Amino acid sequence: MGRITVSCCAFFHLEKADMTLKKTSLNEAHRELDAKMVDFGGWDMPVNYGSQIDEHHQVRNDCGMFDVSHMRVVDIKGKGVRDFLRYLLANNVDKLTAPGKALYSCMLLENGGVIDDLIVYFMEEQWFRIVVNAGTADKDIAWMRKQAAEHANAHPVCYAPDAEITEEESCAENAPPEEEIKRIPNDYLFGDMSVEEATSVMFGKPDEEQAEKPPLDISDHPELSIIAIQGPHASEKLWAAMPGSQQLTEKLAPFSAVVLGTMFIARTGYTGEDGFEVMLPSIAAPYFWKSLLDKGVEPCGLGARDTLRLEAGMNLYGQDMDENVNPLESGLAWTVDLKSERDFIGKAALLANPPSRKLVGLLLQDRGVLRSHQKVHTAHGEGEITSGSFSPTLNQSIALARVPNGVQVGEQVQVSIRDKMLEAKVVKYPFARNGKAVAGG
């Protein structure tokens, strides 16, 4: 193939940033690095710092970092929080028993449509932490509060008070050894905040906007930033940039997290590579970002993040699923617990309406680039591409497509691109992970 450029027009507004756009705490740092800034769902975010393809390869082969502070951290605390999340989420939080363990799930409407996909962390029995998408955050929180109130009215026994747990006991259970905190520079942990202010940021406080105290405290934390460090060498880079972190994170399993002072370090990501997502007070984020830069971690924009997640076969909310599509026809059946007896919002609709479509991978056999909304013509009926792009790892155009159930891996289909019918092969996804291509027939 000849040289192909990766366009981001499908998911970014390539316009001069408006002064009304929201900004993360790292906005100035991005501009100092001459990042190309774009409107990403109302946020002024870096799409790249130079070559998007180079940034993609940097993460697959070494290590890169992303500012994902536009995503929202939500803490749900109180007696009955586990019972509530059993009902709220399609996946089963009963799988979470060890502090810091995480679970990926969809949050559904009654009709089975996806409100959002999210990650939920078990902190302790009366505290779960959730990270939601930026574009759906306000909607998500309003839905959570509405459902929490209704669930409490329907199941008051779940919220009956018992012996009170003090804030000191709550924090101590998840805190690292005191000697570990002492080894970490204060700028990482507190910025220029007092210990009292930092504790409030990390462990939260009641939301003053909730006039009547509800059975559960559902509080979001816009004062927290999130930096994702991704790639096969992410661990070494993190340890070099943050003295004292190795002992606590070296054996941290995927989809697990640990609290380190006011930092919350999770072994999660959206690239198909090893790595961490670090939540910390926004006031301290620029210092941490610079420390990573000084240790040779390359900054990467949201353009590379999108091609990385597509190669890894990871869904993007708003493209691969939304309120009009259920998880069973979005390649997310593995995140839905239909085996246990528990009820959850959307379960009845999923059981009553078996999916007639499914999500598959496509490899373009001809020259061109696959894009979302392109029509897919199969022997079993018409489908549509939900996410598509040029894959730097495969050096080939790839896509996720929703097609009729009868379509099988290995079949040839045709994609309508600019009035031409181009050949594509149906494959299993992911297309690439852990630094190499894995897609096949």
Name a few traits of the molecule:
2 domains, 441 residues, Elongation Factor Tu (Ef-tu), domain 3, alpha+beta, globular, disordered N terminus, Gyrase A, domain 2, 6-stranded antiparallel β-barrel, 28% strand, single chain, 6-stranded mixed β-sheet, 13 helices
Annotate the secondary structure layout.
Elements: H1 27-32, E1 36-40, E2 43-48, H2 52-61, E3 64-67, E4 72-77, H3 81-88, E5 102-108, E6 114-124, E7 127-132, H4 137-154, H5 167-174, H6 178-182, H7 186-189, H8 195-203, E8 217-220, E9 224-230, H9 234-241, H10 246-249, E10 257-260, E11 263-266, E12 275-281, H11 285-294, E13 298-299, H12 302-311, H13 347-352, E14 357-364, E15 375-378, E16 381-391, E17 396-404, E18 412-417, E19 420-427, E20 432-433, E21 436-437
Parallel strand pairs: 3-13
Antiparallel strand pairs: 1-2, 3-9, 4-7, 4-8, 5-6, 6-7, 9-12, 10-11, 11-12, 14-17, 14-19, 15-16, 15-18, 16-17, 18-19, 20-21
